[in-house]
Amino acid sequence: MDFSYNQKQLQFQQKAREFIEKEMAPEVAEYDRRSIFPKEAFLKFGEQGFLGVIVPQEFGGLALGTMEYCLLSEELGRLSAGYHHNGIFQTQKMIMNHGTKAIHARKLILGDGNENEKRRTVRKERRRFM
């Protein structure tokens, strides 16, 4: 078995790393000190499409997979444990309003929900964050 990342995954990882280092790293010490994850950082993250990594393109997402989601999580973790937690898990929670199981809830809705549920849920989050 080959567990190497493919070219598309490596490009996504590089894009995420460059964005995080340029846009988030300069203020991370201050944000960690104050225990905050500012809305501005959250919105910048969404503008790059990072809040829609596993969302299908038809709903405005990037339509990538779990591996890319994990790569994004890893890159945030390189920057700060606080950013990792807030940037990935809490933002998913805010978007989906499904508690700590937000990531799985989103995957369930997009994978098994009917078209009305998918459109209603994703339309609401896209208006706010993507």
From TrEMBL:
Any one GO biological process: L-leucine catabolic process
Domain Acyl-CoA dehydrogenase/oxidase N-terminal: 7-106
Pfam families found in the cross-reference section: Acyl-CoA_dh_N
Alphabetized Gene3D superfamilies for the sequence: Acyl-CoA dehydrogenase/oxidase, N-terminal domain
InterPro entries with a match to the protein in the record: AcylCoA_DH/ox_N, AcylCoA_DH/ox_N_sf, AcylCoA_DH/oxidase_NM_dom_sf
A GO term, aspect molecular function: flavin adenine dinucleotide binding
Name of this protein: Acyl-CoA dehydrogenase/oxidase N-terminal domain-containing protein
Organism phylogeny: unclassified sequences, metagenomes, ecological metagenomes
